User: Fold Nephrocystin 3-like N-terminal domain-containing protein from Colletotrichum phormii.
Amino acid sequence: MDPFTALGLAAAIIQFVEFGAKLVSNSREIYVSTDGRTKEHETLDEICSDLRFLVDDIDEAADLAGEPTKRIDEEVALRKLAEKCRNTALELQSLLKSLYCTPGGRVASLKQALRAAWGKRKVDDVEARLKEYRQELMTHLVAITSNQQSSVLRELRTLKEATLSMQSNHSDVSFQQTFLRGLYFRSMPARHHGIAEAHQKTFNWVFGRTGLQRAAAVHVSNLTDWLELGKGIYWISGKAGSGKSTLMKHLGDHSRTAELLSTWAEP
Assistant:
């Protein structure tokens, strides 16, 4: 349950609890005319309507909350509390309707009317339940708020770690780019162009891993594995005029080199 949905559900419950507590505890004088209409403050119709709206608010907030994907005890308890509030609201609504359906007469207060209909014990029970709901609600809200804060802190911690990782990667890339710029010289393209092309099959053994190619490749400590998986520096040495530059040009231009390096560069 996300924070806004939880707060919406809690707000609906708070509204009902406060309204219900006020309804049964305040001695609000009500005068009923012969047609059943109140002369002062709210009519019983309006009270019933208010209760009905509160029940609808609780239902709507609970529906928006839905079934939690991760069963958090406080969220489940909050849903149960909403259901208890709903049942109590319907109970009050039913009594108020029965009072309204008896036009005429005069009652000293709404609380007295409730006591007359339910009896003192019943009204006291409703009052006690409403106080209990209020206390439950505050407990659940504190727990849910704590859970949400913990979740936010975890997300912030993850974000911080990702930021530090990006900064580290940026430093690595910056160092690598500086290193590559240090190797560059203006005549590099001309130097590359001036190196003779290798014969079509001269250096095929470099990427080989089977048969005669494997036997030849053993002398270069398996360059393919190094390009794909290796770390550190791969050193190629040889006598002057032995074809080192031609080999390097062949490796640099060959599509297989790019494929192997792409595998190495994957996260």
